[in-house]
Structures are given as C-alpha cells and as structure tokens.
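Trying the structure run again after the queue cleared.
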Amino acid sequence: MPQMKKTHNRKDILSGICKFLFLSILILSSCQFNIVFGQLRLVPIGSAPSGDLEVNSGALARIQALGLPFFDDFSTTATSHPDTNFWMPKSGVYINNTLATTQPSVNMATFDGLDGNGVPYNYSNQLSQGHTDTLTSQSIDLGSLSPSDSVYLSFYWLAKGLGELPDDNDTLRLEFLGNDQQWVSVWSTTGPSFDTLFTRQFVAVTNPVFFHSNFQFRFRTYGRLSGPYDTWHLDYLYLNKGRSITDRFIKDIAVRTPLTPFLSKYTAMPIRQYWANPASATSDSVGTNIINLFNDFNFTTFNFTVKDEISGKEFTNFNATSAVFIGGEKGQSKRMAVSPIPVDRSIKSLKLKYKLNLITTDDQNPTIPSVNLRRNDTISARTNLSNYYAYDDGSAEYGVQINQRLGRVSVRFALSQPDTLSGVRMSIVPFNQNVAGQAFTIQILSNKNGKPDQVLAQRSVFASYASARDSLIQYAFASPVALKDTFYVGWIQVDEQPLSVGYDRNSLLGNNQIFYNLGTQWVQETSLKGSVIIRPYMGGSVGETVTGTEPITNSSSFFYPNPNKGIIGWNENWIRQIEIYSVGGILVKTIAAKNDNRSASVHELPDGIYIFKASDGKRSFVQKMLIVK
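Done. Tokens:
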C-alpha cells in the first residue's frame, strides 16, 4: 500500500524510460507508484462517486447452506460482481478477465481499493489505509464432518497482474468462521516481489470449531482505500473433503485469455470504412491461451463461429477435424483463421460475436464431483462495425495524463476513404482528485509526414465521469468535420490538475498511434504499451449507447473576433478572470473581468497564437486565438 513508500523495482516496464517528477506536492508523493514515460504517465484509476449502489441478484445470505463440494472459477459469472449463489453481496470485488494474463481459467476476482461500483472507499484522504475488498462465501454445511475427513480449501492467487503492486505491509488474508461466530485468520501473504504467475495455495480445515452447519470463509485485503493501488487476484477456489496437500491436479482444460481482435488495426471501425477493403481490415487469425490443469497431456477438438448478433446471420462455423495437443499448466496458444465479411453495402451495422468452444471430456469422470468443468471451455469476443473507431477492448486498467498545463495529446486514425466526424467518445477516469466540471479542449487535427498538423476543429468541453465502470462520455461537434485521409483526435489540458483518460493495457493496437506536444513540436510516444480509450464516431448517426452527453457550448461563450487585432470581446457575464498563455504554456497576461466591461486590450502581445482561458472560479473554458495587429 503506497504511503510515502519506496519505488518498487519495475525494470520490466521502466527500463530506459525517463521519469518525470510532477509539480503538485500531492502528485509528487504519488509519483512513487505511478508509471511514468517521457511526458506522458500512467496512473491507477478509480471511478467518480455516485449515488448508485452495487446491484446484486440475491439476498444477504441463502436460506439453506451450501453442501460440498464448493467450487467457483468465476467463468460462469455474468456480471462484474461475484455470483450471489456462492458469495455474499457487496464484496467490492471486481470480476474480470483483463487485469492479468496467467489466470487458471477465464475470469478472476480482483481486490483493490474500489468498492463494487468502482468508487474509492475513501475519496477525501489520498493516503488513508484499511481493509478494502472482502469476498465472503455463502454458508457451507460442515456440521456432519470432522478434522478426520481431510477438508481442504485450494485457490490460486496473484499480486499486481496488470494493476498496482501491493507494498510490504499490504495483505491478502483468508479467514474461517468458527461456531462462536468469530473470524479466525488461517493464512495470509504480504506484498511480495512482482511475479507474473498465479500461485496455488492449499489450506486445511483442521480446527473442530470450524465444523458446523453455517461455516463460511472469506478473503480480505488491507491496503490503500483511495483507489486501486494495491491489487490482488483470486481464482479457481475449491473446497471439499477427502483431499490432501498432494491433490494438486484437476482434469480440466480451460481457456483463459481474451480472444485477440477480429480486425487487423482496430477493435472497432465504421462499417463504411470496413467495406472499402475488408481483406486489409480483417486479421488473419484470432487467438487465446489454453491451459491443461492436469499432470498429463490431453487432446481436444474445437468449434469456432462468427455470427452477427443483430441479424442472426452466421458467417463462420468451423469444426476442427484434427485433435489439438494440450500440454501442462504453462498454457498453450491457439489461433483460428478468420475470413473477411463479404461486402454487402445494404448492411449498415454489424455486431460480430466470435466464439471458441473446446470440445473436451471435462464433464466425464470429473475430478470434482458434481461439477461440470466444461464450464470454462468457451470464450467469446465482440467486434462492432458501426460508426466509430476504437483501439481498446473497452476496459481501462490505468489512466493516462499529460504532465504539463496546455500540453496536448493526440491519437492517430487512418481512413480508407473520405468521411465526416460527428464527435468523440472517451473514457475519463479519476485519479486522486475529482475533476468533474473541469474544462479541457477536444481537437481534431490533420496529418503531415506522419504527425499531427493543423487543427481542423476543436471544442471546449467539461470533464464528466460515467455512471458505470468502463462506460464512455460523448462529446458532439456542432457540425460534422470533413476528413479525407489520416486524422488525429486528442485533447488540450487546460488546468494544472491533469485530466486522466482511460488507458487499455491489454490492447497494443494503438501503441504506435499516440503523440504529445508540450509546445510547438509533436513527439511520438511508443513506450506506454497500450491504447488510449478515445473513439471518434463518424457520419451523422450515433449507434453506440453511452452514459452521458455533454451539451454543445454556445458559440457566444468564445472570445471574438478571431483573428484579433488587439481588442478582445466576450458576451458572458459570469467571466471573472481571463488568463492568456503562449502555445508553450507560459502565462503572459491576466485580465480581471467585470460585468460592466466585456472587452480588453491585448495590444502589448506580439503577433502569434495564444490560449485564452476564462474562469468564474468554478468552471472554465479555453479558446485558441490568433493575434495579428
């Protein structure tokens, strides 16, 4: 749990990359656990506070206790919350398949400093610490058993994964509930050195006080309460009698990592752009990783399908005729060839679901009685061909920030044919401070020699947090922006408090498409290893559900005239202060605005481009102006 702590060894991420110390004292203390690359940096994410409560489908506890065996690998969990058939609600644990890569089967439970809605447990004190997430089983009937029945709980655990590494005094703890209703700690681990592999743990149930009809076990984490700074992952929990410490192998073949993108350059793209050249836009194959949890090799076949969820039309249905050899616990990659979707310009949108189904014998003579282990043999993914571009898979593991006021970030996109842009959807995630309502500027830029060039359109907007985890905020332009080929979408940071935009660590498709500018020169950033979650949507229609839409700023809120010859004017009476910056971020003039005076002289400024920032102390907007006298 990072609290003025030593920087952990992250040579695998930080080697050869220059660290940047941020100016704010609060952020400076946080830089010890942020990932910093050049002038961009990655930060842990949280979610803005909201009034919504975690949604659960079950009551606080089952009326009847569960019997043995108890097994959950989270592969059948349909939401981001644990299944209340097995677990007590309101755990704060996040079920996902993106925050690690070596999980024993598809999906895992992630513990951090966020509650079930993704909101930090303590948003006001950035260095607060305490118990964070708690995953508690429903009651399990052990009343007819005794220590001689050799009851064991086994599970896999991992620190960090793609999240933040816990500190030395952060803990993951397992507790059992005794017949006196007291919780007893039976196993724990503290923040270890970074490891990429899950560790399997066995814990015996030996104390007679645990053998009662309402036995429960729970996992609790202790760490920082203000965000996902201390990350633990849990998977493949199995409690049963008649086990031993040598009971380490289960006859189970499972898929685990997400299927790779169907498209070659994006995770989603406008269907009009796809029809221009489907062969070039489609990947040759998609893949996942398969693991054999038994101590012997096995063979399996598979079925692979590609289907449009809108029309129900099936484009691919391939049944493998030859067996696939599956080795041991290290896992084995498997790829399936994919074909472009045949051109049909009458189709305006496709929601492709592609699915791999292993044909295993995991349901025959199962190692775990009464549990069908074919439950983790299937994995699927979706690709939208509608009206927008995306490099990301929809999940933000981190946030990305530009570390200088008036710094700019842009992401490159390439058209197959001319088109129009209607707006931008982006993931805005909190870090340390709530910046909701803070102004920033969205920009669309042209391309020159592989870098951003001229501003084609821009709009001053206000930061807003989505009401659900991994949802997007939409910002529309008043008029479509005409584009003919490669273009760039990005933002200008207006205030000192940085804007954090969602960053996907799992998708590398956008890794070489990120640029930043701290003055007049654009620099390509290739060290971040991931994709910014920013999605331009094209044409005049909006086909993706979003959680919020920012209103279009009235054009009368901007300074005029532009270009300007030395006297600026404005129409809004709420403006109290105007700050003028050079394009290099230097404050060159401050104007105190009054209700009875809505103009000011800037004759002393040399000819050039300036950034004007207006504020009433709570809200602000910015505008770029050209002064030519």
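Residues 263 and 282 are 4 Å apart (CA to CA). Worth checking whether this holds up in the mutant runs.
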